[in-house]
Specification:
Layout: H1 3-13, H2 24-33, E1 42-46, H3 52-60, E2 64-69, H4 72-84, E3 91-95, E4 111-116, H5 125-132, E5 136-149, H6 156-165, E6 169-170, H7 171-180, E7 183-190, H8 194-209, H9 217-234, E8 238-247, E9 253-256, H10 262-272, H11 277-286, E10 297-301, E11 307-318, E12 321-331, H12 340-355, E13 359-363, E14 375-376, E15 382-383, E16 393-397, E17 407-410
Parallel strand pairs: 1-2, 1-4, 2-3, 4-5, 5-6, 12-13, 15-17
Antiparallel strand pairs: 5-8, 7-8, 9-10, 10-11, 11-12, 11-17, 13-16, 14-16
Helix pairs in contact: 1-9, 2-3, 10-11
């Protein structure tokens, strides 16, 4: 790209509300999926563009935002908008390359939330996850959106365009890459088609009004028109997805159980509960081929290699639709309240996502499980076949592209309900 074309491209994009598909509603949903944040959280917005997300995070999350972009005019737009909204003391702009974050403000553990809407493709999704984790404080969260295939068989026309722009993958492959990078997946959101309109409608208006005789503008206009046309023809084949991620706790190694772990798992579960009933339940579920799913019984190891915690997902039904039941979850008494239970729950939920499961149910403490994204099951029209406090019966949707079933939960026989 020549300097003239580069400048013309940015001339087309100046003063647009967004530089990638998105919406304030999507930003809010991703923020909610990130869970609770500290008061005045420290946020790093990478590839911020004119800063629509930065402004929302500062105003609605009370965040102290460091907004990073290489294009100074975008940063100037953000500074102007922040001042006009009374947020000038909450947003600091930094001209920097997000592929080379060094110097003051980019120390390890500096941020509670790293945010990147529509920008990670510049360095690649895998590279972004690998390099940006170090910036998070303990318990910090990363939110990254990326363009993905939404069909298993993209057309030649769509591939021909996107192969020149970025390496698109299906949602599940990015999810697997996040887990491989050492992250737990708190949530995945496939953005609605309307998010593209918020970007492309103003851009199309700008294209129509542009001066085609300006230096570099013919090339910039041709590239932008091609992008708009590909979206018109092939928009059902790709979209943006947001990933809400948290680095795994390095204190606890998590993995699927092996046959050699069975006695240790039984001992941990028995020790964690007042009776042996839950330990016997695990054994009974293991013996039920209709309930047991290999690879969804997970353990967390203590530093000495012993089993510190266990979490189990087995097959259940909502009506006639398949779902998963999370039960039991147990932590050895010596390791309780140290993060082992949280680590093993997140790990087994990640494993369920990678299997393509879409719904998990749990009957448990309403003050504990919402941290993993669980909400009252009744909100989705799901109910147990026995009396239980509404807030204690919870559901977690792993894949919101699949319709959530409604009806009564049917547990394996071992549960005795």
């Amino acid at each position: 790209m020549t300097d003239h074309t580069y400048n013309a491209f940015f001339e087309l994009h100046h003063r647009l509300p967004r530089q990638s598909p998105g919406s304030d509603a999507t930003t809010r949903r991703l923020l909610a999926m990130a869970g609770s944040l500290p008061d005045r959280p420290r946020v790093l917005d990478l590839g911020c563009g004119p800063g629509r997300a930065s402004l929302l995070l500062a105003a609605e999350a009370g965040a102290e935002v460091t907004a990073v972009d290489l294009h100074q005019p975008f940063l100037d737009e953000l500074t102007e908008a922040a001042g006009a909204r009374g947020l000038g003391d909450r947003i600091r702009t930094v001209r920097a390359d997000m592929a080379d974050l060094v110097g003051p403000g980019f120390d390890d553990g500096s941020y509670d939330l790293v945010w990147a809407e529509g920008s990670a493709y510049v360095i690649g999704f895998d590279t972004a996850l690998r390099d940006w984790q170090r910036l998070l404080a303990p318990g910090g969260t990363m939110v990254v959106t990326d363009c993905v295939w939404t069909t298993g068989s993209p057309s030649a026309g769509a591939r021909a365009f996107w192969d020149r722009q970025a390496s698109l993958r299906p949602v599940a492959e990015n999810t697997a890459a996040a887990v491989e990078a050492g992250c737990h997946v708190l949530g995945v959101l496939v953005q609605p088609d309307s998010d593209w309109d918020e970007y492309y409608v103003p851009l199309a208006d700008r294209v129509a009004a542009a001066d085609p005789s300006a230096p570099g503008m013919p090339e910039a206009l041709a590239a932008t028109r091609e992008e708009l046309e590909v979206r018109r023809r092939h928009g059902s084949e790709y979209g943006y997805a947001g990933y809400v991620l948290r680095p795994s706790d390095p204190r606890w190694r998590t993995r699927p159980e092996t046959e050699a772990d069975r006695d240790a798992v039984h001992g941990v579960v028995a020790a964690a509960f007042p009776t042996r009933a839950e330990a016997d339940l695990v054994d009974a579920l293991r013996a039920d081929p209709g309930a047991w799913l290999p690879g969804l019984s997970y353990v967390a190891e203590a530093p000495d290699g012993s089993v510190a915690a266990h979490a189990l997902l087995t097959r259940c039904l909502v009506g006639d639709a398949p779902a998963l039941a999370l039960a039991p979850v147990a932590t050895a008494p010596d390791h309780q309240r140290a993060g082992a239970g949280r680590a093993v729950v997140r790990a087994v939920l990640d494993a369920a996502r990678l299997r393509g499961e879409s719904l998990v149910l749990v009957l448990g403490h309403p003050e504990y499980y919402p941290a993993f994204g669980f909400e009252p099951a009744s909100r989705s029209g799901i109910r147990p076949g026995f009396e239980v406090p509404d807030e204690a019966m919870m559901a977690l949707v792993l894949d919101d592209s699949v319709p959530v079933p409604t009806g009564m939960i049917r547990y394996p026989a071992a549960f005795g309900v």
